[in-house]
Amino acid sequence: MALIGYARVSSSEQSTVLQVDALRQAGCDRVFEDVASGARDDRPGLQAALDFVRDGDVLVVWKLDRLGRSLSHLIASVTELENRGVGFRSITEAIDTTTAGGRLVFHLFGALGQFERDLILERTRAGLAAAAARGRKGGRKPVVSPSMLGRAKAMIAQGLTVREAAGRLKIGKSTLYDALRGEKVSPSTQE
């Protein structure tokens, strides 16, 4: 079993020295580093660490936020490690998925993350239902207003093509076709 460390700082003005020292003190044989925002997907040091760890190894970080962009990303990352037979340890939070207690704590994090996502979804649905009850409709406002559609129909009736009418109204041809289809009007077949 090898302990493999991962250290990350967000900017070049910061240093990984504190993290690397803590990882070495924790017994890490090798430490991979990144200078990158945690929100970035492309972290070469993390990818190298993930490629390096093998079944039975433990990936060690100084703090949870060094690995994951968000709680859901952190849970997905640790679950992927677990599926590969790789443990996970966070020094600061004292979480170690190679122990029963550490797995319990981590699964509680996962359950709390899922609970949070469910609450957000529930509130969103309730908000949309309340808005609909007040007569409000979500989504973008239509590009083609009723008056614009009327002008377009008049132009087409005078012999202009849909493309020409759309150009004069400064809207896309496809947008005008969609609006005309929604009105069940047959546009000119000329281009």
From TrEMBL:
PROSITE patterns per UniProt: RECOMBINASES_1 (PS00397), RECOMBINASES_2 (PS00398), RECOMBINASES_3 (PS51736)
Keyword Protease carried by entry: no
Family: Belongs to the site-specific recombinase resolvase family.
Protein name, entry field: Recombinase family protein
Active site: 10
Listed CDD domains: SR_ResInv
UniProt cross-references to InterPro entries, sorted A to Z: Homeodomain-like_sf (IPR009057), Recombinase_CS (IPR006118), Resolv_N (IPR006119), Resolvase-like_N_sf (IPR036162), SSR_resolvase (IPR050639)
Domain of life (superkingdom): Bacteria
Matches recorded under PANTHER family: DNA-INVERTASE FROM LAMBDOID PROPHAGE, SERINE RECOMBINASE PINE-RELATED
Protein species of origin: Novosphingobium mangrovi (ex Huang et al. 2023)
Resolvase/invertase-type recombinase catalytic domain mapped to chain residues: 2-135
Keyword check for Calcium: no
Keyword set, alphabetical order: DNA integration, DNA recombination, DNA-binding
